[in-house]
Amino acid sequence: MTHIVDEHADMTDSDYESKRSDLSPTHVVKSNDPSPSQLSEAAAWEVIGRPVDLYSERELQGVLFGELALPPTPDMATDTPSLRTLGIERPHPFLTHLLAYRDARGAAGDLG
Q1: pLDDT tens digit string along 34-84?
Q2: Torsion 45-50-52-57 (CA) sign
Q3: What digits encode the pLDDT tens for the residues 71-85?
Q4: Which listed site, 12, 33, 58, 74, has its alpha carbon 20 to 30 Å from 80?
Q5: What is the pLDDT at residue 24?
Q6: What is the bridge-based pairing of β-strands 2-5 and 27-30?
Q7: CA distances from 40 to 5, 35, 62, 98, 99 (A)
Q8: How many Cβ atoms sit within 10 Å of the Cβ of residue 87?
Q9: SS3 track for the chain
Q10: By C-alpha distance, which of 32, 51, 53, 48 is closest to 112?
Q11: Model pTM score
Q12: What is the spatial distance between Cα 72 and Cα 35, in angstroms, rounded to a whole number?
């Protein structure tokens, strides 16, 4: 959602004159609502109590197979198809949010 915000509503004449070259009458601001991937990422982090890189094989192996004691995937893989299979066999809230995060990032074309 996009909002039009009048940045000059609270400015005095002298404020406006001093900043006139830096300001335009209106400014388009994108919504601050979190994206689906941000919501899923935050939910995954909340489950384990800290942030982790949801694409880092090393970090995910530590969380999934260490902290959460989920059964290791073949070769301790953390790719999305392997994690989907694990999620079916051993559902866990962290896995649910992790996969939702990856789905949202993929849908947005942002696989970074």
Answers
A1: 899 999 999 999 999 999 999 999 999 999 999 999 999 999 999 999 999
A2: negative
A3: 999 999 999 999 999
A4: 33
A5: 41
A6: antiparallel
A7: 29, 9, 19, 7, 8
A8: 16
A9: CEEEECCCCCCCHHHHHHHHHHCCCCEEEECCCCCHHHHHHHHHHHHHCCCCCCCCHHHHHHHHHHHCCCCCCHHHCCCHHHHHHHHHHCCCHHHHHHHHHHHHHHHCCCCC
A10: 53
A11: 0.67
A12: 30
Q: Which residue has the tokens 């996009």?
A: 2
Say which residue the tokens 């896995």 belong to: 95
Bin 21: left if φ > 0, else alpha if -120 < ψ < 50, else beta. Answer: alpha
